Amino acid sequence: MPCRALNYTTRNDWQAIREWLDQRKDPDTKVDTLVRDILNTVKERGDDALVEYTRKFDCDSQEKADIRVPKEALKAALAAIPDTDVAILEESIQRVRTFHTNQKEKSWWTTDADGTILGQMVRPIERVGLYVPGGQGGETPLISSLIMNAVPAQVAGVGSIAVTSPPRKDGTLNPHILATAALLGLDEIYLAGSAWAIAALAYGTETIAPCDMLAGPGNIFVATAKSQLIGHVGIDMVAGPSEIAILADDSATPEWVAADMLSQAEHDPLAAAILVTPSTELAANVKKELVEQCARLPRKDIASKSLTNWGAIITVPDLKTGANLINLLAPEHLELSIADPWSMLGSIHHAGAIFMGHTAPEPVGDYFAGPNHVLPTLRTVRFSSALSVQNFCKKSSVIATSANYVSEHGDKIARLARLEGLEAHARSVEQRIK
Fold this sequence. Notes:
With 434 residues, the protein is α/β, with parallel strands linked by helices. The protein folds into three domains: 166 residues, 3-Layer(aba) Sandwich (Rossmann fold); 190 residues, Rossmann fold; 30 residues, no CATH class. It has 17 helices and 14 strands. It has a six-stranded parallel beta sheet with strand order 1-11-10-9-12-13, sandwiched between helices. It has a five-stranded parallel beta sheet with strand order 6-5-4-7-8, with helices on both faces. Strands 2-3-14 form a three-stranded antiparallel beta sheet, with no helix packed on it. Helix 2 crosses helix 3, helix 2 crosses helix 9 and helix 5 packs across helix 6. It is globular. The termini are far apart.
């Protein structure tokens, strides 16, 4: 498993690194065409199309009546999983809810002496659809994704939430997904996966009511479907493969750094795991640890491919240069595995989530700490942010102006309108100041 070894000294070295990493986002036009056909088919044929796709790819015995999961199944799943798991899920949900409650925005108003009232009304999106991948054969359910998407929507005040996830071969969902939905107070769960599930949430079928916004991770078919529906519905983001960058000095523990890199490499063959360090000794030791630890992983084939193609240990002359490179990489996850991470925090301008010091590994954020783990990838963190309560809200401006206001400012407004060649705009105001 040869992990790429690179050097970065000045901005002149960035171009080659960028060209290498940019290969992870090459579009697949074949997928675009396939997804477009799936969206149109579900739009036209509704439940019939959902059942056909599900029978072909997931469960060959599904009927229309099976699309919605009975509420009783959620209660049964909650009773069936271990009490210790229930307690862990409850605590995770509560921590995520507490963090996101701090993100809530309020409507606000300003008033002027002439009676003018201006303001902004914050309202939740009415109906949201969430996609939850089933994992390998339905046995590695992405329960954390359900929590991370549902909680900020609930905190925002979304009143109607639909969840879709692909069924297992026997037509069921993993009980941990159903139990998590029950703990979240969700009962609108549907058995549908991939692009046809996204189409159903966007357009609606006989069984599934259409949604105003879609959120949740998925494979390239899910991501492509969401991107093709922009403008018809809102979406959270089009996420690419996972990535982690670790800025480390000689105070870092090689075993820990390697383990953290592998925590992302095991996600996907396209996942990127990059160590940036001024310590040649750490670089050598981490490289050795990557080989030894990867060989012991259940998903070693995935992790090995990821590290071979998209992993790197990049040596820099000092931490300041390393921070400059981190800002160019603009990673989804960043670990500051250095002796004094707080001294470096102000130098980091582009990172989705920042993990401070040696005892804050990335999985803490994935599952438990509270901040959202749905993060921008492929350098889009330069202009976008983690999933938040704001994603599930919309804002309306409110304008109340008096007759005196229009009389005082009408001529100026009309002049601006005529500068743009919009005579009817000007006359709309002038009608009120005759």
